[in-house]
Amino acid sequence: MHNTTRVLLKDGVGLTCVTTKQSKTSCLSAMFVLPLGAEGRSKSALLPYVLRSSSRAYPGRQVVAAQLDNLYGARLEPVVRKRGEAQLIGFVADVIDERFAMPGQGSLFAETAQLLSALLLDPGSFEEQTVSCEAEQLCARIASLPNDKRSWAVRRMYQHMCAQEAYSAVELGDVDAVRTISPGALEAHYRSVIQTAPLQLFYCGSLSAEDVAQQLRQVMQARPELKAPVFPQYAAPRAPQHTGLRLVTEEEPVAQGKLAIGLRTGITAFDDEYPAMILVNACFGGTTSSRLFRTVREQMSLCYYAASQTDKLKGVMAVSSGIETASEPRARAEILHQLAEMQDGVTVDEVEAARRSVTASLQAMKDSPLALENFYQTQAAAGLTETLDELITRIQMVTVDDVTRAARNVVPDTVYFLKGAGA
Asked: What is the mean pLDDT of residues 306-329?
C-alpha cells in the first residue's frame, strides 16, 4: 500500500512523501532544479561534490562517512541529473527504514535529514584543495562518457539533433569550464543557486507524511527565501528544426557500429496523449515483444540489439542499436519501415502486450525506494502532480486507436552512425 502526498513546506521548498512499509530501506533526497542551458551549468554540476566535503558541522568526507556509519551504514551520494531541459543537483540518501532501528538509538530519519540539511544549506568556506580535487574528478567523469559507446551514440545524436536547444548540453558540464572554476566563483554561484532555484525533497518510507513534513520543515529553516526564482523552460518541438532527415556519421575505433535514430514526438508528460506515447514506445522498441526486438533483431538479424526510449519532458524518442557497419543502410531502413507500419495501424495484440509490460514495470518500481525517488523527483522538477498509480490507471484506459494516433506524431529527425574507423 502506497500513499503519496505533496506538501509545500515553505516558498521554494516542495516535498513528495510516499508512505509505505513495502521496503526495508527508506530514501530521502533533496534536489535543486535549474535550467540546463544556464551559463553556470558547470559550476552547478560541481556544487554537490564540493558541498559533500564543505559542511560546517561535518567538515570533510571522513567526518561525513563516520556519521553515515552511525546511521547503520547509510549511503548518501551527490547527484547531477538531466531531466528534459532541467538540471537537477543535490543528494540522495538511502538508509534502513525506521522500523528496523534498535530501540533507544534515536531517529534514523531525523539524523539523516539533519545531515542532508547540513551539507546542502550550511557549508563553510570552499577550500582550494577541495574544489581542485573535486573538479578534476568531475572532469574525469565527463571524459569517461564516450567509454560507454551505446549511451554515447545516443548522446551524440541528441547533440546534433538539438544543437540549437538547451537539451544538447551535457549535465555534468564542460571540461574546460570546470577546470577554470575558482573557490570564490563557486561560492558566489552557490549563493545564487540557494536564492533562485526551487528545492524539491522526496521521502519514501514508513513514517507518516505529517511527521516527515514537520521534521523537514524544521531542518529546512536554513533555506533562504527565494529571490527572483528561476525555473526551467521545457520545450518540445513537434517537427524537426531543419529540412529532411539529417544523416551524421562519425568514426571511432569500435568493433561494433552504433546506430542511433532521433525522432520528435512533441508529446510530453504535460500532454493528455502521454500514456498513449508510452505504449507507442513499448510497441516500437521498449520491450522484448516490440517490433524492433522481434523483427529487426530476431527475425532479420540486422542488429545485435535494438531498443527505443523516450524523454518524458522533452518529447523526443531515441532508437539505439548495435550493428555491423555493412548493415547500416538496411538496419536504418527497416527501423524506419517498422515505424511507418505502426503509423498505418497497430494491432490489439501488440498494444495489450505492451500494456502488460509497461504496467508490470511501473508496478515493480513500488519495490524500490530509489526508483520511486527518480520518478517523483522528475515529476516535481516539472511541476507535475500525477502519482504512479494515476499514471498506471491512465495507461489502462488507452485504446488501440489512441496508440495509432500518437504514433503518427512521431517524426524522424536525425540519424547518427558511429562506425568503426577504417570499416
From this structure: 96
Rounded to an integer, the average pLDDT of 226-252 is: 87
Q: Looking at the 3D structure of the chain, how many domains does it have?
A: 2
Q: Which domain holds residue 306?
A: 246-420
Tell me the C-alpha distance between 15 and 7, whole Å.
5
Cell numbers at 235, concatenated: 520545450
Mean pLDDT, rounded, for 30-39: 92
Which DSSP state fits 282? I
Residues 206, 337 within the same domain: no
pLDDT digits (tens, 9 = 90+) for 42-81: 999 999 999 999 999 999 999 999 999 999 899 999 999 9
The model's pTM: 0.94
The residues, ordered by sequence, that sit 6+ positions from 313 with a Cβ below 8 Å of its Cβ are: 83, 84, 85, 86, 234, 236, 268, 269, 378, 381, 382
Question: Kind of pairing, strands 75-83 and 86-96?
Answer: antiparallel
User: In whole angstroms, how far apart are CA 266 and each of 32, 155, 170, 359?
Assistant: 26, 19, 22, 23
Q: Is residue 393 part of a domain?
A: yes
| Torsion angle, alpha carbons of 23, 94, 72, 138, to 10 | 160
Copy the grid coordinates of residue 68: 553515515
Domain ends where: 170, 188, 222? 222
Residues 341, 197 share a domain: no
Q: DSSP secondary-structure letter at 421?
A: T
| Rounded Cα gap, residues 388 and 282, in angstroms | 17
Mean pLDDT for 16-29 is: 94
pLDDT-derived band at 105 (thresholds 50, 70, 90) equals low
The identity of residue 29, as a single letter, is S
Is residue 241 in some structural domain? Answer: no
- Which CATH number do you get for residue 29? 3.30.830.10
Q: CA 43, CA 184: separation in Å to the nearest integer?
A: 11
Nearest CA to 268 out of 318, 240, 310 is that of 310
Local structure of 165: helix, strand or coil: coil
Q: DSSP secondary structure string, 178-197?
A: HHT--HHHHHHHHHHHHHHS
pLDDT computed for residue 422 by the predictor: 59
Q: Please, which pLDDT band fits residue 225 given cuts at 50, 70 and 90? A: confident
Contacts of 253 (CB under 8 A, 6+ apart): 420, 421
Domain assignment of residue 235, yes or no: no
Q: Is it the case that residue 392 has pLDDT exceeding 90?
A: yes
Asked whether residue 230 is domain-assigned, the answer is: no
